[in-house]
Specification:
- The complex is a heterodimer.
- By secondary structure, chain A is an all-beta fold.
- Chain A is globular and about 40 Å long.
- In chain B, 0% of the residues lie in helices and 52% in strands.
- The termini of chain B are far apart.
- The chains are: A mainly beta, B mainly beta.
- Chains A and B meet through strand 5 and strand 10 of A and strand 4, strand 5 and strand 10 of B.
Amino acid sequence: EPEVTQTPSHQVTQMGQEVILRCVPISNHLYFYWYRQILGQKVEFLVSFYNNEISEKSEIFDDQFSVERPDGSNFTLKIRSTKLEDSAMYFCASRQGTSYEQYFGPGTRLTVT
Amino acid sequence: RKEVEQDPGPFNVPEGATVAFNCTYSNSASQSFFWYRQDCRKEPKLLMSVYSSGNEDGRFTAQLNRASQYISLLIRDSKLSDSATYLCVVAASGGSYIPTFGRGTSLIVHP
């Protein structure tokens, strides 16, 4: 069964450093998403991406965040200058164009020290 | 006002029990509704979409009440493996599709 994959599973970084989180969505999916979940809190939408551009973004997705689809398979989230409060699980998700059902990757646990 | 509200629980039930969760949403323009389950420190996994007419998948039944703006999930014959957090997800379809998650309802099924 096709699945969304994410790397790395765990990333530890120092405050102020840049990190890139990587995702490989399901191959025939057209819409891609990033979410974050701070420990003990709800899943929060960050950004959606379709046709090589951002279609929606939340208030959380400020100028320190960016997304890219550098090739036909990868979808990346870059955090330019990490803060302590960026520590969270970051989930990538994708969906087909014909359905709103999203499928999530296993997540990257980001720890900012 | 919270957009998607769920009773956090935990709901502590014996194996074989029937348990029901509700979720209320504030955006009347919402068109897409889902239940996901999330195990501790894992990703949300789609359990089922919720359709206007209600739908059933094995032991799981989901209902939508648009007038009262809530959705429900019923689990019959609970198994130990059903222990997880159940997330309600609501989105307005069309031009602006931003899924909103509830905080989840924790279910613990004990022997």
